[in-house]
Amino acid sequence: MITPLRVDAIIPALNEAESLGRVLDLLPSPPVRRVIVADNGSTDSTSRIARDHGATTVLEPRRGYGAACLKGIEALAHDPPDVVLFLDADLSDDPTEAGALLGPILEGRADLVVGSRTSGARERWALTPHARFGNWIATRLLKVLYGARYTDLGPFRAIRYESLRKLGMADRDFGWTIEMQVKAARMGLRHVEVPVRYRRRLGRSKISGTVGGSLRAGLKILGTIVADYVSHGPPVSGASGQPGGTSRRGTPS
């Protein structure tokens, strides 16, 4: 029998009034008990829409994807969940797939689950060529340097709250997702991927929609990997956790 776990969602958002309401309406409850929308300095009605749809809002005026996620984590401290679900506010992730993403954790098989956009069905041009290339390089480095098998650095992911706390996340911008995967590999967290659908976002992308934005994000991601490896060296043998292959059932391969 699967023991019920408390699941809270964090949604970083910057001027996502067009899509946020639909994201919140589609997010299944249960298993999600509470949603924190971390408003990253929006100038539209993002915060009002979040509140109107039952979410708790917190404000992080310092721009940065990681900064918004960190502010959302702070908001969980007074009543911490067992599991934290992260997803974007632009409807590129499919909130109805939250159950599939949470499954391996709720069943006790994983500490970290990453939704793989490259293994799932995706709309044409939802992932730009430069984004796919950067993603490919980063995941190959994770395999070579840390022995951690991934196909994606996707933002749609779930992690046990205690594991997240122990990671000591610190990156405030583009390096957030790769920092989590690098630190998880170094700590030996059990990780798997599940294929997820990925759609073209509503509105203009703040990062991958331009070559310049993708280049800055790519350099930060690669720099995060290199900096960790130079500082700490290879992980202790056997510490990279259960190899995280991708399967339709979210089981390691």
General shape: globular
Beta-strand percent range = 5-15%
Number of domains: 1
Largest sheet: 7 strands, mixed
Sheet/helix structural class: alpha/beta
Give a count of the beta strands, DSSP E runs of length 2 or more. 7
Rg over C-alpha atoms, rounded to the nearest angstrom: 17 Å
- Top-tier CATH class: Alpha Beta
- Can you tell me the CATH topology? Spore Coat Polysaccharide Biosynthesis Protein SpsA, Chain A
Write up what this structure looks like.
The protein is α/β, with parallel strands linked by helices. The chain has one domain (7-232): Spore Coat Polysaccharide Biosynthesis Protein SpsA, Chain A. The chain has 8 helices and 7 strands, in the order βαβαβαβαβαβααβα. The chain has helices at residues 20-26, 46-52, 65-74, 98-106, 129-146, 161-167, 176-187, 211-232; strands at 7-13, 32-39, 56-59, 83-86, 112-116, 157-160, 191-195. A 7-stranded mixed β-sheet has the order 3-2-1-4-6-5-7. Helix 1 links the parallel strand 1 and strand 2 (32-39). The longest helix has 22 residues, at 211-232. The radius of gyration is 17 Å and the shape is globular. The model has no long low-confidence stretch (mean pLDDT 89). Pfam families: Glycos_transf_2. InterPro entries: Glyco_trans_2-like (IPR001173), Glycosyltransferase_2 (IPR050256), Nucleotide-diphossugar_trans (IPR029044). GO terms for molecular function: transferase activity. Residues 9-167 form the Glycosyltransferase 2-like domain. Keywords: Transferase.
